[in-house]
Specification:
Layout lengths: L8 E6 L5 E8 L4 E6 L20 E6 L18 H14 L5 E6 L1 H12 L4 E7 L6 H8 L8 H8 L10 H9 L4 H17 L7 H5 L4 H16 L12 H4 L7 E6 L7 H10 L4 E5 L9 H14 L3
Parallel strand pairs: 3-4, 3-5, 5-6, 6-7, 7-8
Antiparallel strand pairs: 1-2, 2-4
Helix pairs in contact: 1-2, 4-6, 5-8, 6-8
């Protein structure tokens, strides 16, 4: 990854009576524009996200989605859907006077990248995606009900501990009640447990520093509440919508590189493979020694290689 840099511009974009979004721009003012779409939903951007791009070649734009990161109000679920976020990305493009840009997204960011590109295919130059997630019921069931639990049994036991045993046949719905509870203690305990489960399972080798993020109440509250809100609502999409032929046909012409960890248990490789089957024109790299995180060495190397190759398109 490239050396750390600082933004040369930061700003806010009011997108509704409720939501004001934070964005920043770094790199080359005259470079090829790229929009970074963070994960979660609710994860927010990190300063390290700038480093996937050559700052001499790219105008690097980071956007905190509704309720996430530095956008306000934090953790807000009102007027917060996939299609609200798609409209927000377009508003930012128009605000910045950009005709077409590159789109980069991992995990939920890959979901949003696909939804945005399918909505505005004429505005996307290229796509670099990682850890493909299309929010199908089968994907949610694997991570939150019966799948990853077989690989991380001790972490799973900790994850389901806040949920009364009779409610454990639908973990996502049970968590929804607690994450929206009236009292702060219940809500924050659930948020920390939800977030810790994802942080624990995101790398091939568990990273204690990443797990510790779950103890940060503000981050955990936004991350858990917004993720869960999207998941109980099926992403506000038809099941499998992003993989439907008529949707893929809209973006088939866009150059796209996908980087996928072989041992990603949050967004398993089967989804990236399903995308490749309906969109054979993409380049799919499966990293043999990686999990879900964008910053595992093999994954980061391939992501940077892809952005370097697309810089002049």
């Amino acid at each position: 990854m490239y050396a750390p840099i600082e933004p040369y511009e930061t700003g806010t974009l009011k997108v509704s009576d409720i939501h004001t979004l934070y964005y920043e721009i770094s790199g080359n003012k005259d470079g090829s524009p790229v929009i970074f779409l963070h994960g979660g939903p609710g994860g927010g951007c990190d300063e390290k996200d700038r480093s996937f791009f050559d700052p001499s070649q790219y105008k690097i734009i980071l956007l905190d989605q509704r309720g996430a990161g530095k956008s306000t109000p934090t953790a807000s679920l009102e007027e917060n859907t996939t299609w609200d976020l798609v409209k927000d990305i377009e508003r930012l493009r128009e605000r910045l006077g950009i005709d077409k840009w590159h789109v980069f997204g991992g995990s939920w960011g890959s979901t949003l990248s696909l939804a945005y590109a399918q909505s505005h295919p004429d505005r996307v130059k290229t796509m670099v995606l990682r850890g493909i997630f299309t929010l199908r019921k089968s994907e949610l069931r694997f991570f939150y009900q019966d799948g990853a639990s077989h690989l991380f049994p001790e972490a799973w036991e900790e994850f389901i501990a806040p949920i009364p045993e009779p409610e454990r046949q639908d973990i996502v719905t049970a968590y929804h009640a607690q994450l929206n509870a009236a009292d702060d203690e219940t809500r924050l305990r659930a948020a920390r447990a939800w977030t810790k489960w994802e942080m624990t399972t995101s790398k091939l080798y568990v990273d204690p520093a990443q797990v510790a993020e779950a103890e940060e109440n503000d981050f955990a509250n936004a991350f858990a509440r917004i993720e869960n809100h999207y998941f109980v609502n099926d992403g506000f999409m038809r099941d499998g919508q992003l993989l439907e032929k008529q949707e893929i046909d809209k973006i088939r012409h866009i150059p796209c590189v996908v980087v996928q960890g072989r041992y990603d248990v949050i967004c398993p490789a089967t989804t990236a493979y399903a995308l490749k089957k309906v969109w054979p024109e993409i380049t799919l790299h499966i990293v043999p020694d990686a999990g879900h995180s964008s910053r595992e060495p093999g994954t980061a190397k391939l992501l940077v290689k892809a952005t370097d190759e697309f810089a002049h398109i």
